[in-house]
Amino acid sequence: MSIGLKENKEFKYSTADFQAVRNKLRNIAGINLVESKDSMVYSRLSRRIRALKLNSFRDYLSYVDSHSDEHQEFVNSLTTNLTSFFRENHHFEHLKTFIKNKKGPVKIWCSASSTGEEPYSIAMTAVEALNSFNPSVSIVASDIDSNVLETASNGIYKGEALDGLPISRKKQFFQRGKGKNAGFARVVPELRRMIEFRKLNLMDEQYDLSRDFDVIFCRNVMIYFEKDTQVVILRKILRHLKKDGLYIAGHSENFSHVSDLLEPMGKTIYKTKV
Ligand SMILES: C[S@@+](CC[C@H](N)C(=O)[O-])C[C@H]1O[C@@H](n2cnc3c(N)ncnc32)[C@H](O)[C@@H]1O
Asked: Quick one: CA torsion of 75, 140, 253, 242, rounded to 10 degrees?
């Protein structure tokens, strides 16, 4: 790949700059940026360079080195937080049956929760499964990105985010904003109360979490890690899942090759063997 110098861009940006960004992101967060993300890197980091009144990518990378508080901004700028309510709906259908059958409390960890649509979908599923706004289901939702966690914790979304939901769910689970909040919707407090939001980097040596989860959602985040790292992370995550618990992966994340750890239960749904 050759980016070359982007002459007509606001900041000089070369292949070497892109590679330096990739290395730094791998070192700080263990995230592997694919080669095709060079334009995304330019547009996201240009905003930081401008905000800090710096002159170049090189200056910015030195700034990151000498300011540890910039590490989080750097990671936040480069992570992709795409998500939506009931994304990959078959997972939630499966979860509903699991919760109904499990007579007793259910503990769920949503390990890359982004802006909250995924953990709130889990909470809605629990309410629907047990027909109660006080179900015996608790959810820990975590992410590396502090900005998305704040959005998730506030539980306020643009009206369009709810477009794919049936009217019954919109009515039951959201409050429409009025006046200056028109066009926004807030999740009802009963859902919010079911979820504990935590900052957590899946690349950390170990996770400060209990080891008795019944279900772990880890969707559309493994794609950021190298193949070998994925298995290392998977092993760490599975320490927190009870035997026979459910591990739910993203649509392009296949773990059939780690058959000593996981047994396939359906499309990207696995039962743990360890
Ligand atoms: C594409 S979103 C997926 C959101 C949601 N799981 C879904 O499938 O809709 C990926 C999320 O992974 C988070 N992430 C990236 N690297 C991470 C890491 N090392 N530890 C924890 N979260 C991470 C990003 O901040 C982002 O919110």
From this structure: 140
- Exactly one of 17, 38, 143, 145 is catalytic; which is it? 143
> Could you write out the DSSP letters of every residue in 133-161?
SS-SEEEEEEES-HHHHHHHHHTEEEGGG
Q: 58 C-alpha to center of ligand 1: Å?
A: 27
Q: Is 32 in the pocket of ligand 1 (CB under 6 A)?
A: no
In a domain, 111, yes or no: yes
Report if pTM > 0.85: yes
Please report the atom of ligand 1 found closest to the CA of residue 218. Answer: 6
State the Cα–Cα distance between residues 261 and 270, nearest whole angstrom: 9
Q: What is the mean pLDDT of residues 78-97?
A: 93
Domain boundary among 59, 78, 97: 78
Active site residue 214: no
CA angle 18, 19, 23 (to 5 degrees): 120
Last residue of a domain, one of 58, 78, 98: 78
Question: Tokens 């058959």, residue?
Answer: 259
The 10s digit of each residue's pLDDT in 110-160 is 999 999 999 999 999 999 999 999 999 999 999 999 999 999 999 999 999
State how many domains the chain has: 2
3 — pLDDT class (breaks 50, 70, 90): low
Q: Is residue 10 part of a domain?
A: no
**Residue 95 near residue 215, CB atoms below 8 Å:** yes
| Strands 262-266 and 184-187, sheet pairing | unpaired
Looking at the DSSP bridge assignments, the partners of residue 175 are 186
Q: Ligand 1 center to residue 249 CA distance, Å? A: 12
Compute, in angstroms, the gap from residue 233 CA to the centroid of ligand 1.
Answer: 13
* pLDDT tens per residue across span 196-219: 999 999 999 999 999 999 999 999
